[in-house]
Known about the structure:
Elements: H1 3-26, H2 44-49, E1 53-57, E2 63-67, E3 72-75, H3 77-80, E4 85-89, E5 95-101, E6 110-113, E7 134-140, E8 145-148, E9 154-156, E10 167-169, E11 181-184, E12 189-197, E13 200-205, H4 208-214, H5 221-240, H6 250-263, H7 266-278, H8 282-295, H9 300-312, H10 316-329, H11 334-346, H12 350-363, H13 368-376
Amino acid sequence: MPPVSRLAAACARLPVRALLLTLLLLAAPATTARGQSGLCGQPQPVCEARAAVFAVSAFDPVGSAVRIGETRLVTARHVVADEQNATVFLADGRPIQARVLATDYPGDLILLETADLPPGPVLAPEPVRPDSALYTVGADVGLRGIRAYDPGRLRFAPPPDRPLARLHHDAYSQPGNSGGALLDQGGRLVGIVASGGEGRFEAIPAAQIAALSARSGPAAAAASAEIGAAVRICTTLLDRNRTPGRRLDDQQAKAIETSCRRSGNRQLLDLAGQTLGRAGRAEAAVGLFEQGLAEDPNAVNTRIGLAITYHLARAFEAALPHLRWLMDHAGDDLQVLRLSIQAGTWAGDRALAERALARLKQVNPRSAPAAERFLENPPPRPAKPR
């Protein structure tokens, strides 16, 4: 199916998806649902702040949004893409409509406006405190309400010279939480949930809401439509080509690279890099990962994706600086350890390989003997793919 037809078909299904989400939320008995007023096992300020978080549906059928004003919410841009309206679900499951405010803000945030929100708490952006526990609060369809998940801690704060860098943390989140709140233990809004995986999660610093507001309004309509369309096209192409081992022709690879670059969304850049790397498009994949690292040098998953791409391309020397960084900051990750042993051995960094082996013996001793045999008697270095 051509891309335009595929996008039209996706748009046509959105009302049905929104209806399904409505039915799921309405099906929860008010006395037992773990929604805004239901059970919560986290600190009281965190539990109370759930009343400022709502389930939303737009391009993404299930997302979350945070109330930051009497009539205003903020959510993740990838939840909305180029939709002009979003459905917001109140605590009792009733849907209301919100208008998407155009913006040329380059990060993964966007504002929603609706006069139909009932009275309730409003969350104000606060700086993150490095010593505070952090909690993700977002829509949980399984529990049919807004859930506060178990806490985690800050891993990396954004460098001051990288405005699009994110808060990296290990507070659990799951699909449907995008656009939700990252709170500290006092219930203060320190971030907007963006993405994550493999126990590593990311949020956009709440301080960026001010920059978003300053760049939102009718004057940004054209730029907003272009960014939103890029998010939609990139997401659609990645969904279509997610099958491992699928080959891409030149036109398909270029479409993924171009749309995902234009989206400006670092999660989509990572996913596009992974897709192109698996398809043997190493040069394009490396460019996407490097764009992501230029925005956020602390992005562990981006560096792992880049190291894997260099590994697939047999460019082991190029992977070494990233693997050294990863050993310092994600040295318990088994994939990082295996890559470090192999690349260190084949690219002549014996110290890196031995360091990774020593750590592997601590975190996964069962796999250490095979890794040690590899290090002491390595097979020939693989040739570069043709």
